[in-house]
Amino acid sequence: MSRLRERLLQACLGLCLGVLLAPAPCSAQAVTASAAVDTAAYATGDGWIDRQLADIDAYARRYPDSYIDELARYLDVRRGYAAAVLQAPGWRAGDLYLACAWAQAHARSCREQVRAYSAGRAQGWQAVLASQGEADNAGYRAVRHAIVASYDRWDRPIVLDARLQQQLGDHEQRLGRARDALQPPATPTPAATR
After folding, report:
1. Residue 42 located in a structural domain
2. What stretch of H or E contains 184?
3. Is residue 164 assigned to a domain?
């Protein structure tokens, strides 16, 4: 009887381990595949921006309040409006971020850009931006810089391409410039004013 019990115990352990270990590779593959789909779905015409927008989706899912605060403080969109857009079918955090950053770069309201993308969503971001006559390099540059600044404020790691590295420097250089900008101007000493 003890031999039968031992064999049953081994069989149960083997089955349990098999069940526990089998889903792990499948889950990892599903996550990788969904990330690739999300990245491709943006199709802004700039692969670096597409990858960051997919990552912004992940950040916003995990930290929705921080994401909405970022939009409100730095991209000039009301919190209530941002939350409402994110509840609308088909809108992702990256879509809203791009709409607001692009609008800011072109001195427009985020609402205008949201409406433009809503009307042309089937064509994708690159076509929507081109149809407005504004798919320019300066607009893409402004969005790239806004993304880097957001990641710095979120203390989220980001890999810059060579062009951004040249324009903005590394993380420590960006932090140093931010600290310098916060320093009060030096006040002249009484002897220096004479």
Report:
1. yes
2. none
3. no
Q: Which residues contact 183 (CB under 8 A, 6 or more apart)?
A: none
What is the distance, to the nearest Å, from the Cα of residue 139 to the centroid of all Cα atoms in its chain?
17
Chain segment 97-117, per-residue pLDDT in tens: 999 999 999 899 999 999 999
DSSP letter for each residue of 44-108? -S-HHHHHHHHHHHHHHHH-HHHHHHHHHHHS---HHHHHHHHHSTT--HHHHHHHHHHHHHTT-
Largest CA distance in the chain: 105
What whole-number distance in Å separates Cα of residue 93 and Cα of residue 54?
9
Query: Does residue 20 register a pLDDT over 50?
Result: no
Query: Given this model, what pLDDT does residue 168 score?
Result: 85
User: Cα–Cα distance between 40 and 50 in angstroms, integer?
Assistant: 7
Which two tokens mark 63? Answer: 């930290």
CA pair distance 96, 114, nearest whole angstrom: 7
CA–CA distance from 145 to each of 95, 102, 169 (Å)? 17, 11, 11
Domain region containing 150: 37-158
Is 25 domain-assigned?
Answer: no
Question: Is there a contact between 38 and 57 (Cβ–Cβ < 8 Å)?
Answer: yes
Lookup: tokens for 109 = 């309201």
pTM beyond cutoff 0.85: no
